[in-house]
Amino acid sequence: MSDTPRKILILGVGNILYTDEGVGVRAVERLLETHDFSDNVTLMDGGNLGMKLMAPLMECDYCIVLDAVLGGDAPGTIYRLTGEDLRKSLAFKDSMHQSDLVDTLIYCELAGHRPDTVVIGMEPLDFQNMSIELSPAIAERVPAMIDIALAELAAAGGVATPKGQS
């Protein structure tokens, strides 16, 4: 194993036009506003790009996806998904994004490199009404989602420093 740190991608996905479906994108925006990151970490607004995410996925070793997740628990519940559970994430269902992210990861594997992937997701309150604002109940849970993502990042070998503390 080399001493080169793993390349980590923090990918916020979702459609910001549908209220809480955009929670992953909003969390990445907040991270970019509040933290500086080590050189091995990239943050990206993946929106609902589907297959267009293949290149950034193939360039990383570890991917932390932030997204809305339909897990059936109370709105604001935060999940950590890996393996087969990834399909609970909205990015991993065909209905809301152009392409299923699990399929995109399979294509990455077929092309020679599939990053280890974890989803930090939140149960949405409203993902059907059009609004560019998160519902208040979900907006107040974003800091908790970010804390979990930052812990995941640290465990993977990335460093996030609050702005002004570097």
TrEMBL record:
Q: Which InterPro entries match?
A: Pept_A31_hyd_express, Pept_HybD-like_dom_sf, Peptidase_A31
What Gene Ontology molecular function terms does this protein carry? aspartic-type endopeptidase activity; enzyme activator activity; metal ion binding
- GO biological process terms on file: protein processing
* Transmembrane region(s): none
SUPFAM superfamilies, per the entry: HybD-like (SSF53163)
Q: What residues bind Ni(2+), as annotated?
A: E21, D67, H97
| Keywords, alphabetical | Aspartyl protease, Hydrolase, Metal-binding, Nickel, Protease
NCBIfam families per record: hupD, hydrog_prot
Family the UniProt entry places it in: Belongs to the peptidase A31 family.
Q: What is this protein called?
A: Hydrogenase expression/formation protein
Source organism of the structure: Solidesulfovibrio fructosivorans JJ]
